[in-house]
Design a protein that fits this description.
about 725 residues, Immunoglobulin-like, five-stranded mixed β-sheet, globular, TIM Barrel, six-stranded mixed β-sheet, Rossmann fold
């Protein structure tokens, strides 16, 4: 009787089993398994598998799923636990959809368990079209939320992965989209290690992310999907990454077509494989057979990559008895179930940021309103709910729907699109401004006007995905597109109170609105039922606690060259001008008071941790969450360092009159600066810690009316070099 092959022996390690399985394949079979669409090998019992799946804010592109707020909205929650729970729901639905598809013989794209999420690139320039896929501009926030997301996706079983997450796009990638196939991002060692790599390092070392995706661009001359520096020296040798690396889609042909670092397809695939790229999103890796024949790669190098890929598939339980795999009995009924859908609304509520509330116009009292005008191209837009890389909600609730639902039949709703999102007319044969008269008629008859303006993913997004005149999906400037600004000014001239709701995935320079409009809400792309969350905020069902994960600048002109990857004058950490709305900013319907910071020791030895605590009290009249932020400043650094950096976040929920104590611990690594050689050095000297509901900058303090507390401590001894 034939004994069971080793690769099916569940008592062996996944590595041993994967090696055994790969040893039984022909060279041709091995190479086919390195393409994102991997065919079946029936003689070995290997089913077809498509590696390409997306789960940025819900299981994407595979039909119905719970659609959470876009990633930038998730970032605005500043809430690690919330992101973990969100990702846990996403992978639960992913499991349910995968098993059901497999049972039906559907092994197509977007049906697998290898999710190419999260996108942890740094949103360094607000013009970048894909910034809304990220967690914003700050390395610490991106790392914390990215780690939480990966842990939620991958689950906490000791043996099996619930699903496999992927950190992308590694590295130094944030536009311009239209040039990404040939662009060389030039970056200093300091900026690389201080800004662009920390989140990737955290996901690899802390969250044990299963996969990493290379970026399209070159970094300092090396194409990222074939970069010895990034993939071999840093990712595998320095950080000890054990998972697999995938290329971005069709990125490897860019080596010889766009970057011109190789001459032929076999040379390109050899460069990718040798430097640690295991999986090709695309089909160029079939050229590995030619590269092997020409002596450019060895069969051992191919084996190494294929083994890594099968270890991932085995970790997902694909070769084991389903009874032994804890996630294989996930029922299809969980997909977009009421519990998940309701949770997405709660997440959306926590993502909304109140930017302005002059004279406490908000919350609105629906008992005192007889009529509301809801105006704007995003008022009844489904596109503005879902962002990009999205699933299909089985229940869309637009802002207009949400307001109608909230006020019932007692309040008259007047609705007008007002203008097209970016064209000069709504109907093709009409004259420009064909909805202005209607919008003004609505405003004149209303007690209050809700203006829903902004963008959607047809305007800002990935090269090839967007459908308008913007090149490649990047924004040409930070202005409201089309006729939106003009519409806003015309409606303002009616004299009616206006609440401006911005639905966008990035910062807009709404300087005119900041001067003239009494209340402004940043709603991002709030998910399938996002309109319910917006309405709940408008009518005071809860108090907002979202914070900006990006800086809102005053003008496009103040931004550095889009192609310049230096962090000089970029993001809150290095910007020179005053922000319109700063990173970390957001208002509440109540008021919080912070006591002075306490610390047992204000002099520590180099290598010791620093611990401090603060009391936070809700001194207003409404229960609310508060987003407590800690910023660290190195006062006596020997090189240029950020003016201060976010280094701690906590969410606390307090009833009126209640208070709580929040404790933070800073590690030596957090105190270290990155020098010009990219080394992490902890220098002796003075450090300042700021704790409050915002950054300690003058603009935030003016906007919030709340001081940020400060304490100094001293590090003695050193300098010492720490592991990066």
């Amino acid at each position: 009787m034939e004994t069971k092959p080793a690769y099916l022996d569940e008592s062996l390690s996944f590595e041993e089993r994967a090696k055994d399985l790969v040893s039984r394949m022909t060279l041709e079979e091995k190479v086919t398994q390195m393409l994102h669409s991997s065919p079946a090998i029936p003689r070995l019992g290997i089913p077809a598998y498509n590696w390409w799946n997306e789960a940025l804010h819900g299981v994407a592109r595979a039909g119905v799923a719970t659609v959470f707020p876009q990633a930038i909205g998730l970032a605005a929650t500043f809430d690690e636990d919330l992101i973990y729970k969100t990702a846990d729901i996403i992978s639960t639905e992913g499991r349910a959809k995968y098993h059901e598809s497999a049972r039906k013989g559907d092994r197509d794209i977007y049906k697998g368990l290898t999710f190419w999420s999260p996108n942890i690139n740094i949103f360094r320039d607000p013009r970048w079209g894909r910034g809304h896929e990220t967690y914003g501009e700050d390395p610490y926030l991106t790392a914390r939320l990215g780690v939480a997301f990966v842990k939620g996706i991958q689950g906490n079983d000791k043996k099996y992965l619930k699903a496999a997450a992927c950190a992308k796009h590694y590295a130094v990638h944030s536009g311009p989209e239209s040039e990404r196939h040939s662009f060389n991002a030039v970056v200093s060692k300091k900026d690389l290690r201080e800004t662009y790599l920390p989140a990737f390092r955290a996901l690899v070392k802390e969250a044990k992310v299963e996969a990493v995706m290379g970026a399209y661009n070159r970094t300092n001359g090396e194409p990222c999907c074939g970069s010895k520096t990034l993939l071999t020296d840093i990712l595998r040798n320095e950080w000890g990454f054990k998972g697999h690396v995938t290329s971005d889609c069709w990125a490897i042909k860019d080596f010889h077509e766009g970057h011109m670092v190789t001459k032929t397809a076999p040379e390109s695939v050899a460069m990718a494989l040798k430097n640690g790229c295991d999986l090709n999103c695309g089909n160029l890796f079939v050229n590995l057979l030619i590269a092997h024949k020409e002596g450019l790669v060895t069969e051992e190098e191919i084996d190494r990559a294929v083994t890594r890929l099968f270890v991932t598939r085995m970790k997902l339980g694909m070769f084991d008895d389903p009874k032994n795999v804890p996630y294989s009995d996930t029922p299809y009924e969980v997909v977009s179930c009421r519990e998940h859908s309701d949770f997405s609304v709660e997440v959306a509520k926590k993502s909304l940021v109140l930017l302005k509330n002059e004279g406490n116009l908000l919350p609105l009292d629906k008992k005192k309103l007889k009529s509301i005008a809801v105006i704007g191209p995003n008022a009844d837009s489904r596109e503005a709910l879902v962002g990009n890389y999205n699933g299909t909600p089985d229940n869309y609730v637009t802002v207009l729907d949400g307001i109608r639902k909230a006020v019932g039949d007692d309040v008259r709703i007047y609705y007008s699109e007002g203008c097209h999102l970016f064209r000069d007319r709504s109907q093709g044969l009409a004259a420009p401004r064909d909805r202005f008269a209607e919008a003004l008629a609505c405003a004149e008859r209303a007690d209050v006007v809700i203006m829903c303006l902004g963008l959607d993913a047809t305007l800002e997004g990935e090269e090839g995905d967007t459908s308008n005149e913007f090149p490649g999906g990047d924004k040409p400037d930070l202005n409201l597109p089309g006729l939106q600004q003009e519409l806003l000014e015309k409606v303002y001239a009616t004299g009616k109170p206006i609440v401006l709701v911005l639905l966008s995935g990035s910062a807009l320079a709404v300087t005119w609105a900041d001067e003239h409009i009494p209340a402004i809400i940043q709603a991002w792309y709030p998910g399938g039922r996002g309109g319910e969350a917006v309405a709940a905020l408008l009518f005071g069902e809860y108090s907002p606690s979202g914070r900006l994960p990006v800086t809102f600048y005053r003008t496009t002109e103040e931004l550095p060259d889009f192609r310049d990857y230096s962090m000089k004058n970029r993001t809150y950490r290095y910007m020179e001008n005053e922000a319109l709305y700063p990173f970390g900013y957001g208002l509440s319907y109540t008021k919080f008071e912070y006591s002075p910071i306490k610390a047992e020791k204000t002099v520590i030895n180099a290598g010791e941790e620093f611990t401090c605590s603060i009391r936070v009290k809700n001194i207003g009249s409404m229960a609310s969450e508060e987003t407590v932020q800690l910023y660290l400043k190195d006062v006596e650094a020997s090189v240029e360092v950020p003016k201060w950096s976010l280094n701690g976040i906590r969410k606390v929920f307090l009833e009126p009159g209640c208070e709580t104590e929040v404790t933070f611990t800073l590690t030596p690594r957090q105190m270290a600066l990155i020098d010009n050689e990219g080394r992490a050095i902890l220098e002796p000297g003075t450090f300042e810690v700021y704790i409050g509901g915002s950054q300690p900058d003058a603009r935030s303090i003016k906007l919030t009316g709340t001081q940020v507390q400060k304490i100094a401590f001293e590090v003695v001894g050193g300098p010492i070099e720490l592991e990066y």
